[in-house]
Amino acid sequence: MSATTRFSAYLVTQNDKGAFQGEVRTDLALDQLPAGELLVRVDYSSINYKDALSATGSPGVTRQYPHIPGIDAAGTVAASASGLFAVGDPVIVTGYRLGMDHWGGFAQYVRVPAEWAVPLPVGLSPVESMRLGTAGFTAALAVDAILSQERHRADGPVLVTGATGGVAMVAIALLAKLGCPVTAVTRKEGPVRGRLRQLGAQEVLAPEALETSDRPMLKERWSGVVDTIGGAGLEYLVKSTAAGGMVTTCGMAAGNRFSSSVFPFILRGVSLAGIDSVNQPAARRVRIWSHLATDWHVDLERICTEIGLDGITGCVREILAGTHVGRTVVKL
Ligand SMILES: NC(=O)c1ccc[n+]([C@@H]2O[C@H](COP(=O)([O-])OP(=O)(O)OC[C@H]3O[C@@H](n4cnc5c(N)ncnc54)[C@H](OP(=O)(O)O)[C@@H]3O)[C@@H](O)[C@H]2O)c1
Fold first, then answer.
1. pTM for this entry
2. Residue 114 beta carbon below 6 angstroms from any ligand 1 atom
3. Band of residue 3 on the pLDDT scale cut at 50, 70, 90
4. Residue 300: pLDDT band with limits 50, 70, 90
5. CB of 229 closer than 6 A to ligand 1?
6. Distance, CA 280 to ligand 1 centroid (Å)?
7. What domain range includes position 203?
8. 278-281 own/partner pairs: CB under 8 Å, 24+ apart
9. Is residue 130 a part of any domain in this protein?
10. Mean pLDDT of all residues in the chain?
11. Ligand 1, from 56, 94, 167, 249: best to mutate by most atoms within 8 Å of Cβ?
């Protein structure tokens, strides 16, 4: 393999009118990849909300184009200048700057700093690791935070919002596997609600079914919350969480602001945990991935679609329109 070896990727460029366009390219060369100790031959990537933003020029995610999005990659080390990994090691790369301002996993190769990679744990195949991807890792971080609360099982179901999204669907499957009752909230109607029940949700609600009120605290309903959408509604989730419960927040499709009194926190001991999948230390990444390969292993094939590089543009459109369901894996 030489520096001029060619590979295929989904490259996003900006034209002279400022518009962004993604296309499959087969003529990229290894020496165009950014610096890093590990060259990884990518078998699978996956599509997350952030990839949809990067693929359409969102400056909060990616500033430099041409760019290859893809915040997830699973594959095999093809070259290593690090003592941490050897050629042939199977690895998962997620988070840090991958796919944001560093060319990402929608490509047959990525080159990354060694500390961005974790060994693919025994018990998880490359495709399974990308069915999880950053969405699954994020769901697992949220579940880990909820389980850290002693009273999580005693005081009602765990509420999961944005329920047909990737983070939420993995969270539902994971919580159900761990024996936690789940209430799912989705804006969508129709058969997808049945899929949420099959996945493990005991109850599926429309957002309008959640109580809203100006009162400082509402009836205690949730032992924990996996909120994936953010926005003003987070206020009601906090004030309807049971004493000792844990509310986790990871996304902002519905907005990036909410207001709250301090009452749920100081009178009920409710906690609010921010979930950040990007900058987790290596030891925590390894611990969470190891759970996902063993006692937290969930079969996600039924909520996954597999596409090639040529399917990315359509999937990005669905994600931004809010019509995408579940997880989409990209096979390289
Ligand atoms: N903090 C982190 O480290 C981290 C990591 C991963 C993801 N995230 C964030 O978490 C969120 C979910 O990620 P994902 O990969 O699961 O995304 P996704 O698959 O696109 O799912 C997002 C879901 O949110 C709901 N939704 C979309 N637009 C909405 C709107 N305008 N108002 C209300 N609900 C809306 C939809 O659910 P329904 O139609 O079922 O209601 C949708 O399925 C994203 O904001 C993402 O950026 C953060």
1. 0.96
2. no
3. confident
4. very high
5. yes
6. 20
7. 135-274
8. 278/95, 278/96, 279/95, 279/96, 280/95, 280/141
9. no
10. 95
11. 167
What does the pLDDT look like over 74-121, one tens digit per residue? 999 999 999 999 999 999 999 999 999 999 999 999 999 999 999 999
User: Across the strands, what pairs with 205?
Assistant: 185
Q: Is the pLDDT of residue 155 over 70?
A: no
278-305 burial, b at 16+ Cβ within 10 Å, e below that, comes to eebeeeebeebbbbbbeebbbebeebbe
At residue 256, does pLDDT exceed 70? Answer: yes
Identify whether 64 is part of a domain: yes
Number of domains in the chain: 2
* Same domain membership, residue 321 and residue 215: no
Given a cut of 90, whether residue 149 has pLDDT beyond it is no
The single-letter DSSP state of residue 121 is P
- Closest by CA to 265, choosing from 243, 250, 292, is 243
Structure tokens at 296: 């937290």
Show the beta-strand stretches assigned E in 106-252: 109-112, 117-119, 158-161, 182-185, 203-205, 222-227, 241-249
Q: How far is the CA of 320 from the centre of ligand 1 (A)?
A: 10
CATH code where residue 66 lies: 3.90.180.10
Structure tokens at 230: 């953010």
Question: What's the Rg (C-alpha) of the chain?
Answer: 20
Do the domain assignments include residue 175? yes
